[in-house]
Amino acid sequence: MKAKKWCIAVLFTYLFIMIGIGVLVFVVDPYFHYHAPIRGLSHELNNTMYQNDGVIKNFDYNAMIIGTSTTFGFNAEEAGKLFGKEFVRITYLGEGFKRINLALQKAIAYNNELSFVIRGVDPIWFVTDTNYTGYSEYPDYLYDNVLWNDVNYIFNKDILINDVISVVCRTLSLKDDTSNKKNMTVIYTSDDNEGDALQRYTRPPKEEKIIEQSETDEFFRLLKQNMGENVFSTIEANPDITFYIFIPPYSICWWDSINQYGVSVLERRISMEKYVIEELLKYNNVRLFSFSNNYELTCNMNNYIDEIHYKEEVNSKILSWLQNGKYELTKDNYLNYLSDITEFYSNYNYDSLFE
Amino acid sequence: MIFNSYIFVLLFFPIVIIGYYFFIYLKKYQMVTFYLIVTSLFFYGYKNPLSLVLLFLSILVNYLFYKSIKTCYSKNLIRLTPIFLVIGIVSNIGMLLYFKYYNFFIDNVNMMFETRLSFRSILLPLGISFITFQQIAFLVDTYHKEVPDYNLLDYTLFISYFPRVISGPIILHNDFFSQLSENKRKMNWDFFASGLYLFVMGLGKKVIIADMFAKSVNWGYSNIGELNTPSALFISIAYSIQIYFDFSGYSDMAIGISRMLQIDLPVNFNSPYKANTILDFWDRWHITLTRFLTKYLYIPIGGNRKGSLRTYLNIFIVFLCSGLWHGASWTFIIWGILHGCFMIFTKRFTSFINKVPKIINKLATLLFVNFTWILFRSESFNIFKQMIRAILQNQWGRLNETMCGYFQPVLFENLINIEVPYWIWAILAFVAVFIIIFRCKNVMEKATMLKYSTVSILWTIVVALISILSFSGISTFVYSRF
Description:
The structure holds two protein chains of two kinds.
Chain A: H1 3-28, H2 48-58, E1 63-67, H3 76-83, E2 87-91, H4 97-110, E3 116-120, H5 140-143, H6 151-154, H7 157-173, H8 196-200, H9 213-237, E4 242-247, H10 252-259, H11 263-280, E5 286-290, H12 295-298, H13 312-324, E6 328-329, H14 334-347
Helix pairs in contact in A: 1-7, 2-4, 3-13, 4-9, 9-11, 11-14
Chain B: H1 6-25, H2 29-45, H3 51-74, H4 81-113, H5 128-143, H6 152-160, H7 173-176, H8 189-222, H9 229-260, H10 278-284, H11 287-298, H12 308-326, H13 330-348, H14 350-355, H15 358-377, H16 381-392, H17 401-405, H18 424-439, H19 443-448, H20 454-469
């Protein structure tokens, strides 16, 4: 073989394979960047950070569940049956409000049919900078509209091997056809033994933190700015969309972790929640829920895998409560709710958990 | 822009090649030079267009000094030539000192005199050390009447030539200009094939091997406290592997790219870890830097012509400068000093060392080089001390699991579930790399005697595909327990 023939063979085979890979990734499109799942082709919703944008832009839906990891365990099909709508679930694990709100705004911009949103608003993200984002590495190339940087998606070994080829193999073997499912179901496994979540909890040392007014003022400044820009503004700008906002029910261990710094810290937490509730109740397109006064739920650590994440059975319960209006907060009952949880969590015998 | 990026491999370089051979086909040779300059400037200024201003100024000023020295010779003003040479060298070194060493200098002044002089945020122009050395060499050669007449266009290409502008090899005028003649620019398929092979294998060395080891090394240096003795040793050897495959891979790519443009660049690495002694090591590691320092520093300050004591001092000075050239930090300076001292020791006891079995010399050289790489990698003496303490703590046990995790192949993890001990992949990677380093011919040797067979076609394509597909990955978000 001569050098010329060798060079041409290398270059053309390389080119041919690269085009083949490009076409394969485009057709399978495991992150739905270009199109919704093709009928008959197996697919999996298993990587939210990479798939959320594709789901938002290319799936058919008129309702959405959106939030952090505390919304991860919801089953969109279950929600669809309860509310009679076509749901998608968009979750950002460990992410603050900024990126979640951007995703919501994008969904509204792309989908005129979207009329119903269930959004979890986590108290742990109340006080952050408005522009706070959690992920250090984020696949921007999937979220922007720049065509060129899609090479990161098209020619990506990890995606090709773990997502594209596995989808092709699964489809060919007909072992696991997920083409009609829109949600991954098992998220928070229930294989924990009783008491596992309690054992995993690391209790902070007890201290009586002296609260400076300036610190509280700063917290409220951040809270107002963060909620204003990343939650309230989208609700206000979209009066035709119904928002079911819920405050995720954190466990008694989470309350303990606050209480360990002193009752005044715990009360400040609740005063922030009060602000959020009062603001949200101003909107006619909002129905607001909180389950922190369901003490059977929050005080039983067997419902949880850690201090804030509940097991998937709890997600089903939350969906049913949203549907039947249980634990809904209104202008008439929210003050009672707040005084009730203040009373309960301030006086709870936390030490009994660890005896 | 870097070679191991999508934009370079999929867009920039194909465009360069197509345009280059288009102008060659049209026999527009001046246009070829102009085209290479434009593409080189785009390559250099891709991330920071402002750095082009500095590059332009530097080229222009040096060309003026070159012309001035030439004019002085032609007009018999020989007395003035050293003045232009000295000003030229000082201005080049001054630029290097300012951009690379200003903050280091301020830091040391603050430390010594307890002052609070403020640092400046200076953006280090890409490849400034290489560019500066090349321009100094050019002026010195001009002063020695070794440089013929070159026009500004050719000189601009000589300095900005994209395959080598960022990380070398450091080229001298006679390496380069002679290849710009028209008859040497015709398509030579053998040369092109060896270039293509070199580029792909260099890419593989960098992306597949060096970057894999780099992840483990970066983790190790950020978590020294978690390393037991075997893990710390593992990290130190892993860095020796990383730096060799990274730098030599980049050099292979540079030479390969240039060969595809029908311009040969000097060899920069020749299996350095196979060296018998430290003298041999420096004949094999970053060869063009050794050549530069020998010709433009060691020989001018006396070389070995003024007795053995002076020779040792000269070696010491050369390695001190080499250390400083590698980076603005005391760890680099000490690294250079240690190498200088070991060179002096080896020179002083050459007759004894020659009697020692080769294998012992090789091992001693490797151990020394590996030890000094720890210093090279450490951002401060404190980190270096921690690493040495981790190695010497005499705490034996299993290799660290996280550290080994970086060698776990992600391939087919969703399809095939193989249960093997976590450390297997790390050990396999080490064994494979040791075989490549110590038993195989290096990439340059293989490229020189490239066999045009189906096997070499397949091997080249496989390495190219794995490398390109590895430019991007996916980050896994470890959250809670899943």
